[in-house]
Amino acid sequence: MEEIIRLEGITKYFPGVVANDNVSLTIYKGEIHAIVGENGAGKSTLMKIIYGLYKPDKGEIYINGKKVNINSPKIAISYGIGMVHQHFMLIPPFTVIENIILGSEVKNGISLNFKKAEETLNDIINSLGFKIDLYEKVENLSVGEAQRVEILKLLYRRAEILILDEPTAVLAPQEVEELFSILRKLSSQGKTIIFISHKLNEVLNISDRVSVMRRGKLVNTVNTKETNKFELAQMMVGREVFLKVDKAKREKGEEIFRVEDIWVRGRKGLDVVKGVSFNIREGEILGIAGVEGNGQSELIEAIVGLLPLKKGKILFKNKDITLERIRQRRLYFGHIPEDRHKRGLILDFSVAENCILGLHYFDRFSKGIFIDYSKVYKHANEIVEKYQVKTPSIKIPIRNLSGGNQQKIVLGRELSFSPDFLIAAQPTRGLDIGATEFVHQLLVDLRNQGKAVLLVSADLDEILNLSDRILVMYNGEIVGSFSQSEVDEKELGYYMTGVKKQTELKEALI
Amino acid sequence: MLETIFAWETLTSAIRMATPLAYASLGGVFSERSGVVNIALEGIMLFGAFFAAVGTYFFKNPLIGVLFSIIAGTIIAFIHAVVSIKFKVNQIVSGTALNMLAAGGTTFLSRLIFKAAGSSPHIEGFTPIDIPIISKIPGIGLIFSDLSPLIILMLVIVFMSQYILYKTAFGLRLRAVGENPQAADTLGVNVYKYRYIGVLISGILGGIGGAFLSLEHARVFVENMTGGRGFIALAAMIFGNWKPIGSLGACLLFGLAEALRMRLEGVGIPTQFIQMIPYILTMLVLAGAVGKSTPPSADGVPYEKEEI
Ligand SMILES: Nc1ncnc2c1ncn2[C@@H]1O[C@H](COP(=O)(O)OP(=O)(O)OP(=O)(O)O)[C@@H](O)[C@H]1O
Ligand SMILES: [Mg+2]
Predict the structure, then answer these.
(1) Are B306 and A101 a contacting pair at CB < 8 A?
(2) Confidence tier at A242 by pLDDT (50, 70, 90)
(3) What pLDDT is stored for residue B45 in this prediction?
(4) Mutate to test the interface with A, among B186, B290, B303, B306 (most CBs of A within 10 A)
(5) Based on the structure, what is the number of domains in chain A?
(6) Secondary structure letter of residue B126 according to DSSP
(7) B102/B99 Cα distance (integer angstroms)
(8) What are the transmembrane regions (chain B) (predicted)?
(9) Averaged pLDDT of chain B
(10) Min distance B186 CA to chain A CA atoms (Å)
């Protein structure tokens, strides 16, 4: 096989960490090469070095056998390297075609020549066999479509090597399939693909070879055919991992929480939650599956009191709490918000301060109108210990912690007042296998202790593994309801994408 | 009173009053579309007004006056650009400082150069133009006669800007760095370059807006003669949804308010109330526009290139 990229001893330091430690890796032309590793293993850093966003402190990059110096994305693009970032790099109010041509415009005098660009793009799109409206604004696209725009951006620049950093994190299963079919076509056209993911099933499904990274080092590169999930997980974490959680069977308990016919108006003035009703009982996990942007976020925001209800009722242990203020409501349930950076933490506050957000007025943390820091530190140390948070100190800004450790702080805080009900929105988004396992076990433990958990997630493995009952949300409505045993991933996918809809939701209110 | 309001003269004077606002407002569009908030426009206009008077006074040529105002406006804008793009200082603070500099600086220089407190000597502006044929139509013809060339230039620039921003590669890139600088950067677009250009254009246009005030309006430089017009122009920009033609429309509305203010003086209502019209309208319009118009996403946010 012909090599296309060769990395030799790539090392990159960030203050206090070695993000890449003497990484050597060869990528062959036309292969789909997956890279896996825990949070902070250095995957994104390595990719950004190849794409010219970071300069390595040591090491060399060879393309087609020639040593190159990639100082900027512009140079990377000229070598045929393109990258789809972990967070989309799109401009929502621009049209698809504007997003694609930006920076490499075809001109007609001084004006933009959209016709010419359109011809080039249509050729690419036809060869890959999907459809997209080039003149639609990106803000109106689904996540899957937005991702195709990102890929088109690369192909329009004649990329031969495509780097995709966690491209499937936010996709529904059908969208993942569509993405994979595109990637397979690209690979058959001779393009090389580097693919990062935390989801080992996907990696095994799509890749030719897998490289595993741990703490900045490249641990191993193996042929996909010759490995399996457990071996990969073990290489990533450095210990054995249990990919399934144990759940004891439970009897139906008392009702803890109920919403009735909830309607919520979104920020754009349209109804985004349309008549949702469900209840949760003691000792169960209710999972809400759905592709992002189908009203789940607004549903949760309305429940916790961040958005006003247009109509409907919220009951906690049979008490109507619809009109109660956030501070009162907050004590009924713990809440792990879907965007921990925006709603769950204040990144520039210390770890300790983040441990008492929203609880700061409790008598046990204050002395009169002042915060009693000795008590706060004690509380924070307890959380750090109990949840095994890795942090050099509780006094550093929480910004410096990895995603998994930040999430543990949120969890610790929200469970510190022992609520009977926990709302967990996308609780493992972006977390690696080890941290995910930790969070999952915690949710199941809560359930086994007889508490109620509302789990909102776009990750079907998570929903199927943990939930006792499953609801699917599509376009603001609950379109399907199941008990755990009666549904599989594929079936849920049909409901999530609006292909199927139940007329009677027998599992929503029990 | 009604015939004072509903007269063609009201309309002509509305257009005249709208012109300096439109220049500044358009300047704001370029600056903020590129991602830099520019409240220094008030000060830029004031400097523009002052240096237009200086240039015209000493060279007896309004064209030189306008040239002076452009240079002055560009220099102030350049300071704002360096401070907010390179040093990433809070853009409101930088703008406020420049506005204070303008208020003090022009007053000081005016007294120094013209040797009189309050205002400059009389200066000659441009010779007005009549648009052939249409200006002869009774009534509506009034709008097309006795026009300052700067009014015509303003209209040309507004429509040209609309084209440039939305139909050219330059416009696409300028708007891109104001919406998502990271995205633009990863595609090889030089974020800082386009932001500097955006701010400098606002300096040029703000300067001309100021020149219109002293050259065409008052025919004299009066200390602090902008009287908050730079801010009203920013309100018009917001009301016009950060688009050239939209802003022009909003400026015409504010121009009308000013025209009414002038025409209503002396009809018996206490002048203090009449003087308030443009400012109250500004507040009402802003209160109504907020939430409906969407600023560029990265407006006012300094861009920090990831360190490599
Ligand atoms: N710009 C930066 N400044 C300082 N430290 C950084 C920077 N970028 C990454 N790091 C650190 O370098 C290490 C590797 O980070 P990187 O983002 O490459 O991990 P990753 O494998 O992509 O993780 P994830 O799975 O969470 O995306 C981490 O410890 C991270 O905190
Ligand atoms: Mg990463």
Answers:
(1) no
(2) low
(3) 98
(4) B186
(5) 3
(6) P
(7) 5
(8) 36-58, 64-85, 97-114, 147-166, 196-215, 231-257, 269-290
(9) 92
(10) 6
Q: At which residue do the structure tokens 């409790």 appear?
A: A362
pTM above 0.90, yes or no: no
The response to whether residue A61 sits with its C-beta less than 6 Å from ligand 1 reads: no
Residue B298, pLDDT > 60, answer yes
Assign residue A30 a region: left if phi > 0, alpha if psi is -120 to 50, beta otherwise? left
- Domain span holding position A503: 245-332+420-510
State which of A418, A442, A458 marks the end of a domain. A418
Residue pLDDT, tens place only, B25-51: 999 999 999 999 999 999 999 999 999
CA distance linking residue A340 with residue A333, whole number of Å? 17
B contacts of A150 (beta carbons < 8 Å): none
Beta bridge partners of residue A36, listed in sequence order: A212
CATH number, domain of A484, equals 3.40.50.300
| A75, A166, B34, B95, B160 from B184: Cα distances, Å | 15, 21, 11, 26, 24
For the Cβ of A404 lying below 6 angstroms from any atom of ligand 1, the answer is no
**If we measure between CA atoms, which residue out of B30, B53, B90 comes closest to residue B217?**
B53
Q: Across residues A430-445, what is the average pLDDT?
A: 87
What pLDDT score does B32 carry?
Answer: 98
Give the residue from A156, A80, A92 showing the smallest Cα distance to A118: A156
| Greatest Cα-to-Cα distance within chain A, rounded to the nearest angstrom | 74
> Residues B125-154: pLDDT tens digits?
999 998 888 888 887 888 888 899 999 999
B30: Cβ contacts below 8 Å, ≥ 6 apart: B161, B174, B197, B198, B199, B201, B202, B205
**A169-196: b or e for each residue (b if 16 or more CB lie within 10 Å)?**
bbbbbbbbebbbebbeebbeeebbbbbb
Tell me if A186 sits within 8 A of A161, measured CB to CB. Answer: no
Indicate whether A449 and A341 sit together in one domain.
Answer: no
The amino acid at B76: I
Nearest C-alpha neighbor of B261 from the set B287, B232, B234: B232
Query: CATH class for domain B2-126+146-289?
Result: mainly alpha
Q: Is residue A187 predicted with pLDDT exceeding 90? A: yes
Residues composing chain A:
510
- The residue written with tokens 């139940």 in the block is A502
- Count of helix runs (H) and strand runs (E) in chain B: 12, 0
Judgement on whether residues A157 and A269 belong to the same structural domain of the protein:
no
| A369 and A484 housed in the same domain | no
User: Do residues A191 and A319 both lie within one domain?
Assistant: no
Confirm or reject: Cβ of A14 under 6 Å from ligand 1: yes
A43 and A163 fall within a common domain: yes
Model confidence at A380, pLDDT cuts 50, 70, 90, reads very high
Matching residue, tokens 């009735």: A260
Can you tell me the ipTM of this complex?
A: 0.91
- Give the model's pLDDT for residue A244: 67
Residue B308 pLDDT > 60? no
**Sign (positive/negative) of CA torsion A108, B155, B241, B88?**
positive
**Percent of chain A residues topping a pLDDT of 90:** 65
Closest atom of ligand 1 to CA, residue A37: 21
Element (DSSP H or E) covering residue A477: strand A477-483
The answer to whether residues A106 and A14 belong to one domain is yes
- A496 and A506 fall within a common domain: yes
Lowest mean pLDDT among A171-180, A234-243, A444-453, B236-245: A234-243
Residue-range domain boundaries for chain B: 2-126+146-289
Boundary residue ending a domain (A179, A205, A237): A237
Of all ligands present, the nearest one to the C-alpha of A401 is 1
Q: Decide: A348 and A400 in contact? Cβ < 8 Å.
A: no
B169 and A105 within 8 Å at the Cβ level: the answer is yes
Which protein residue's CA is at the shortest distance from atom 24 of ligand 1? A39
Partner-chain contact A104 B294, CB within 8 Å: no
Q: Is the same domain home to A40 and A160?
A: yes
Residue (of A191, A206, A211, A165) closest to A51 by Cα position? A165
